[in-house]
Amino acid sequence: MRVLVTNDDGYLAPGVRTLAAAARRLGTVHVVAPDREQSATSHSLTLHHPLRVRDAGFGLVVDGTPTDCVVLALGELLPERPDLVLSGVNHGANLGDDVLYSGTVAAAMEATILGLPAVAISLAGRDAATVVPEWEETVGRLLERLVGERQFPTETLLNVNLPPVPPAQVKGVRVTTLGRRAYMGSLTRALDPNGREYFWIGGGESRWWGGPDSDFRAVSEGYISVTPLHLDLTNHRLLEEVSGWDLTL
Length: 249
Ligand code: MN
What we know:
- The protein has helices at 14-23, 66-77, 103-113, 128-131, 136-148, 215-220, 239-243, and strands at residues 2-6, 28-34, 53-55, 60-62, 84-91, 118-123, 156-162, 173-175, 180-184, 187-191, 197-201, 205-209, 224-230.
- The protein is of the alpha/beta class and 249 residues long.
- Strands 3-4-2-1-5-6-7-13-8 form a 9-stranded mixed beta sheet. Strands 9-12 form a two-stranded antiparallel ribbon. A two-stranded antiparallel ribbon has the order 10-11.
- The radius of gyration is 19 Å and the shape is globular.
- Manganese (II) ion is lined by residues 8-9, 39, 90-91, 104.
């Protein structure tokens, strides 16, 4: 099996090294990753400047987004089309609404759009970057379970979140739905040293909610969460109701 590995934390991130090492038990691994932090860049493509690629030894490095990396890897950079695309291991959870902002999940989505099986993997917890190497063995075994033994579902990606506990303390794997999250106090308005106003998005506290089968609940209870995602955002339940609206112009 040929595996493409990418991420959104940049090629120097411990998480992408861990994922590449774990993926070697599946076959040949090619790494094509951003040259810097690209977290929360979502599914953006770079259209307004040329992209440069260099060989960093460990893999190819692109001065673009995670989606750019997948597009370039599949379109030009890899000698053959891969059988599987893996994104991560992200330093921090990608649960619930996070999947709409995450570059890690977007890279897997891009692979899904291009017709390939894809898995996004994230490690919850503030010290994820420090402890992620401990997860190599567990992630490797999980990947074998997810992609090694069966036909991968079409037009679907798997969003995996690892709980913030040592791998030996994981209680198991749960298949989950996306939860919901609200941030509080995550927008700062302040003055810079020159007295000019600035705004900064980030930080603050987050509050989670969702059903007993939701992803954040599984992770908070010490389980690995696996959420199958598809890219059809249509609200099928509302089609009939909206069709009943008078939209005559
Ligand atoms: Mn990230």
